[in-house]
Amino acid sequence: MIIIPMHGLTQKQRTILDFIKQCDAMPSYRTIQRKFAYASVSTVAGHIAALKKKGFLPLPKAEDGACSVPVIGIFQEGKPLEINVHSTSVVWTAKRKETLYALQVQNNQKHILDGDILIIATNTEACDQTLCLVEINGNTHLRRTSLEGPFIRLVSLSGQSQMIAQEDIIVRAHVLEIIRRL
């Protein structure tokens, strides 16, 4: 099971977050109030606001297209993907109708941090100016792709660029969003 670090949370916020993760849908503030015997709903609202501000509950309204995206594994730059079918999930605003997954980042880089979540669509076609997870020689990298004839220019988040023949890489997924975990 993947454990998302919860640095910066109070014990009460952790407890509420754990309870929310156990529910099929976001429970009402009144349900949370009763569950934890809080004196008022405003106490719950304060904790929920803090969880949202810290990035642990990016919960838009249901009409905005919120969906639960399973965290299916771990991404480490330059290493093979680690897939884990016994996973957790994150809530994300669905802007697309295709099947979406998430990967937890497990190493720090300049622009992506340990604990961040990558929302991905399993599209295996290289597209121009798309952030992708690409596999080169069995190792996975996060790169922006740029099609240039029979070649693909791969640009890292730090701006380093390399040209590679299209047949020498495998596009594993398109990255739709990086969710920062504090």
H/E element sequence: HHHEEEEEEEEEE
How much of the sequence is in beta strands? 35-45%
How far apart, in Å, are the first and last alpha carbons? Answer: 20 Å
Instruction: Give the % helix.
Output: 10-25%
Q: Return the CATH class of the largest domain.
A: Mainly Beta
The overall average pLDDT, rounded, is: 79
Low-confidence stretches: 1-5
The appropriate CATH architecture of the largest domain is: Ribbon
User: How large is the radius of gyration?
Assistant: 19 Å
In CATH, what is the homologous superfamily of the largest domain?
A: Umud Fragment, subunit A
Number of helices: 3
Which fold name fills CATH's third level, the topology of the largest domain?
Answer: Umud Fragment, subunit A
The outline comes out as elongated
Total beta strands: 10
Biggest pleated sheet: 10 strands, mixed
By secondary-structure content and strand pairing, the structural class works out as alpha+beta
Number of domains: 2
Describe the structure.
By secondary structure, the chain is α+β, with helices and mostly antiparallel strands. Helix content is 18%, strand content 36%. The chain contains 3 helices and 10 strands. Strands 1, 2, 3, 4, 5, 6, 7, 8, 9 and 10 form a 10-stranded mixed sheet that branches. The N terminus is likely disordered.
